[in-house]
Structure formats: structure tokens, C-alpha cells
Amino acid sequence: MTWQERREAQSQMIEKVLSYTKVVLGLGYAGFFTAWSGAKPYLSPKELVSSGLCMTISVVAYLVFEVYQGFVMSRLSNALVWIQTEDDFQKYASRQLKTVKTFQSVSKFVYPVSALTGLTGVAILVYAFVHSLFRLWHP
Q1: Angle at which helices 45-81 and 3-38 pack, to 10 degrees?
Q2: pLDDT truncated to tens, each residue of the chain (139 aa)?
Q3: Radius of gyration of the chain (CA)
Q4: In sequence order, which ranges of the chain are alpha helices (DSSP H)?
Q5: Staple 88 to which of 2, 14, 41, 83, CB 3.0 to 4.6 Å?
């Protein structure tokens, strides 16, 4: 397998993983909000608001990052069209490296925030379910 074939295979694998992750996250968010809206009558106002707020922060952080990622990728691919010379390519590669480093820095902040707030929202909802179930069985 040549170096180019390895890069293409790796690129395809990364694309598949990213697509899978986006589908799973989308289903997770949809599942949470479905369970959350169905459980409203059984949740206290604090449980309802805190779990919904945590998950909303998670969704917004993730969506803003995805829009930012789309902007960055679009900008990089548009700049690639204008490359005419080797010197242009070197300038492009230098800008691309800076952009990717910035992107990685942002992702190191956004992913933990999104994961932490999302998991906190889920934990609050699960606690509320268990607590409500306990109150139903032991009035």
C-alpha cells in the first residue's frame, strides 16, 4: 500500500467515524429531549429546568462548534482553488496549519463543555426518574 493510499484510507475512516459520531449525538440529543418532554409532569421545577438548561447548553455549544467547523473547512477549501504556484501553496500550507491549530484549541474547550453539560443533564433526568419512581411506590 502506497503512502497516498494510506492517507486516503485514513481520511475515509476519519470521515466515517465523524459521520457516525454526529448521528449518535443527534439521536442522543433527540432521545433526551423526547424523554424530558414526556417526563415533565413527574419532574420538579428544579429538575425540569436544570436538566433542560444543561442539555440546551450542550446542544448550543456543539452546534456552534459544528458551524465554526463548517466555516473553517469552507474557507480552507476555497483558498485551495486560488493556488497557482509553489509559493502560493507554501503560504496556503502555513495558513492552514495555523487555522488547524486554532481549530484544535477551540475543540479542546468545546467538546468537554458539551460533554460535561450534556452528561449532567442526563444525570439530573435519570435521578429525577428514579426519585419520581420511588415517590410513586412509596407515597
Answers
A1: 150
A2: 787 777 788 778 878 888 888 899 899 999 999 999 988 888 889 999 999 999 999 999 999 998 988 888 888 888 777 777 888 778 888 888 888 888 888 889 999 999 999 999 999 999 998 988 888 888 7
A3: 22
A4: 3-38, 45-81, 86-137
A5: 83
